[in-house]
């Protein structure tokens, strides 16, 4: 039995250590974040302890570093008094169940976690403003124990919110499950688009969710999330899929990893820089312009310009957020009234989106490995956050908490075989 196989399957005599490495935040800013040794939590009667097999490093952590206790999900929680373990993306395996859950959960069973928990806080109410009154949402990696650690305490809120999600295939790679949360945000976003249909002049109108089949779809921004949007948009079978980005190297990557898949599905994928966008769209659409535009960049000027590209009944999806205080866009009332254009948006996914994402990964609707840019051990967490902050990494970094200390390894893509090899070489036990 290889080291990886033993790690994955052997829980007969599994020994939980007394301490673990965890990424802990104890105040505002990078100066108050550290990967350090902490006690492994003991699950209460209605809690679980899980091993974290892989964890992603999310850009949303930067907002936590900036806002701290003022973040709406912390609601006054004092990070200096009560430090938290960060991390909202990961793949886990149950190692211990609380006394009231032993008949329901067994050691060795794998799960994913939807970190956005639509449930009021249950524990430590005194740490929130007004004892948590009015709060209807908590989150893993915020005031609930996070995934950038060797082990995670699965608290009552996660279970009550149905956010502990069984995998459709127990052999799914750890990294792929870790990618489910960011991908679920895209799944959620694309279902916010909708189009109105009539089968005949005499029939009633009806709506269909999603990108218009056989239409023209534009993805603005070919960064990490933009790439995921491009691949998942193919599920809706647009006739033409246009990718718009300022950077030629990003467009080259689109052509390399996604154009072959588009061609197999009969979709014409076109990459274009902003200066050529309007003329190209006018030509390929015979002047009718786009049915769907998904803007995966948080740049006000770009978002405003995109309305020029929208055709009759088209939808602009504002996936990229704008900063508070500079978030107003101009929308022409005449275009809404006479051309029936629509504007939509979303912020994150829910449990249903997470489940749909796991199924999409299993069914090869999306190759999660295309979006892994680096792998390493958990001690790289702060380095990765700094790289994200400095825009030095394109794609997702996946960290494996139970490997020995390793340098961050940059990769073009990742898959199950590469993961197995990496873990065989680097697991601590």
Summarize the structure.
This protein is of the alpha/beta class. 28% of the residues lie in helices and 24% in strands.
Architecture overview:
By secondary structure, this protein is α/β, with parallel strands linked by helices. It has 2 domains: 3-184 and 350-426, Medium-chain alcohol dehydrogenases, catalytic domain (Quinone Oxidoreductase, Chain A, domain 1, Alpha-Beta Complex); 203-344, Rossmann fold (3-Layer(aba) Sandwich). The chain contains 14 helices and 21 strands. The chain has helices spanning 3-9, 60-67, 156-160, 174-178, 180-190, 224-233, 248-257, 259-264, 274-284, 300-306, 333-339, 351-362, 381-389, 416-426, and strands at 19-25, 33-39, 48-56, 84-85, 89-97, 110-113, 116-117, 138-139, 151-154, 164-166, 194-197, 206-209, 216-220, 240-244, 268-272, 290-295, 310-318, 342-344, 372-377, 396-400, 409-410. The strands form 5 sheets. Strands 3, 5, 6, 9, 10, 19, 20 and 21 form an 8-stranded mixed β-sheet that branches. Strands 15-14-13-16-17-18 form a 6-stranded parallel β-sheet, sandwiched between helices. The protein has a 3-stranded antiparallel β-sheet with strand order 2-1-4, with no helix packed on it. The longest helix has 12 residues, at 351-362. The radius of gyration is 23 Å and the shape is globular. It starts with a helix and ends with a helix. The mean pLDDT is 96.
């Amino acid at each position: 039995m290889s080291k990886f196989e033993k790690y994955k399957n052997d829980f007969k005599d599994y020994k939980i250590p007394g301490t673990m490495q965890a990424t802990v935040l104890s105040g505002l800013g990078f100066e108050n974040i550290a990967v350090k040794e902490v006690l492994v939590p003991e699950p209460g009667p209605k809690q679980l302890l899980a091993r974290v097999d892989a964890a992603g490093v999310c850009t949303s952590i930067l907002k936590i570093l900036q806002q701290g206790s003022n973040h709406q999900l912390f609601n006054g929680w004092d990070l200096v008094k009560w430090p938290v373990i960060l991390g909202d993306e990961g793949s886990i395996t149950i190692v211990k169940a609380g006394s009231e859950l032993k008949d329901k959960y067994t050691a060795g069973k794998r799960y994913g976690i939807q970190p956005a928990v639509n449930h009021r806080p249950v524990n430590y109410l005194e740490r929130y403003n007004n004892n948590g009154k009015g709060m209807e949402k908590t989150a893993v990696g915020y005031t609930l124990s996070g995934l950038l650690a060797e082990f995670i305490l699965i608290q009552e809120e996660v279970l009550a919110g149905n956010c502990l999600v069984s995998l459709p295939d127990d052999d799914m790679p750890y990294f792929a499950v870790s990618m489910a949360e960011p991908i679920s945000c895209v799944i959620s976003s694309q279902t916010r688009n909708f189009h109105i249909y009539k089968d005949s002049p005499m029939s009633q109108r009806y709506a269909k969710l999603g990108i218009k089949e056989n239409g023209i779809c534009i993805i603005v921004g070919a960064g990490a999330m933009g790439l995921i949007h491009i691949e998942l948009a193919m599920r809706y079978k647009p006739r033409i899929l246009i990718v718009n980005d300022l950077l030629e190297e990003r467009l080259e990557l689109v052509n390399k990893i996604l154009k072959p898949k588009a061609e197999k599905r009969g979709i014409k994928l076109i990459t274009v820089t902003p200066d050529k966008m309007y003329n190209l769209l006018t030509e390929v659409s015979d002047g009718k312009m786009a049915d769907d535009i998904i803007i995966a960049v948080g740049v006000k000027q770009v978002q405003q310009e995109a309305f020029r590209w929208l055709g009759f009944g088209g939808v602009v999806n504002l996936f990229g957020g704008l900063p508070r205080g500079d978030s107003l866009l101009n929308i022409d009332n005449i275009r809404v009234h006479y051309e029936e254009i629509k504007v939509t948006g979303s912020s994150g996914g829910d449990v249903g989106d997470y489940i749909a994402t796991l199924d999409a990964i299993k069914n090869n609707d999306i190759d999660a490995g295309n979006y892994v840019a680096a792998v390493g051990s958990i001690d790289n967490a702060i380095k990765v956050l700094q790289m994200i902050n400095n825009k030095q990494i394109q794609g997702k970094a996946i960290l494996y908490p139970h490997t020995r200390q390793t340098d961050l390894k940059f990769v073009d893509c990742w898959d199950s075989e590469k993961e197995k090899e990496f873990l065989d070489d680097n697991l601590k036990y």
